[in-house]
Amino acid sequence: MEHDVGLAPRSGQRAAGASAPGKVWLVGAGPGDPDLLTVKAARLLASARVVLHDLLVGEGVMALLPEGARRICVGKRDRRHSLPQEEINALLVELGAAGEEVVRLKGGDPYVFGRGGEEAVALAAAGIPFEVVPGISSAQGMSAYAGIPLTHRDHASSVVFATGHCREGGAGPDWAALARPHQTAVIYMGLGALAGICRQLVAHGLEPDTPAAVVEQATTRHQRVVCGTLLTLPVLAAAQDLAAPALIVVGEVVRLHGTLGWFAPAQARPAQGRHPLP
Ligand code: SAH
Asked: Which atom of ligand 1 is nearest to the CA of 58?
């Protein structure tokens, strides 16, 4: 198979006497719409035998797996019921060491807030061959489908991706860096802390009337976009009862949603011969 051509096994790092390792592909599943998979990801999914996936991976993408593929769900929507990251790493290493060819399917891009880096380090340390297949990160999917360009010559000359979810006891986001003018900030995993995030951005220098939006389930037929300002967004979002997965986007570019928001999910119907949207 074409996709078997990749990293040569690094036998020097393997325990002597171990059976020949298989291989792990860390694959980005994109933000939801299966049409946004890369050709390489779609090809790997079509021939997958063992798949470890997060709950974030949309149904439409999962539907592309062969019927007989073994599916192992390692992430629940409720974080408390997810397999701890160390166990996911260990499972990947174990399967790889046992000679399995494993697709590790992750929402968006594996290396954008996906902990793919930790999994790749574990595989490298164990001498298990791996490849990483990039995916469209939800910020990029959101940008295209909500009509909110991440940069624009008139509005934003830089873009920053940040997480609103911090490790227990860990340092919070660098608010001053997020609150720069002429910049777009996209905040992942921040919906639960929306009011505090908006407050901090104003406290660190952004005007309270800076445009801001929450985009829920971007690129899927359930996509919802709620636009406001740093002052009004928390109340507007609460009124709509928005839920994860959702992104917060802050900056002048949010104004363009009204003009560029071409995607009308309520009317979205799968065209003939195409995969249904998740
Ligand atoms: N690796 C992923 C991010 C994983 S962290 C990526 O590149 O997109 C999980 C967070 O991603 C969610 O809490 C949410 O903030 C965001 N997210 C993922 N899919 C999304 C979607 N379809 N719409 C909006 N936000 C999404």
From this structure: 22
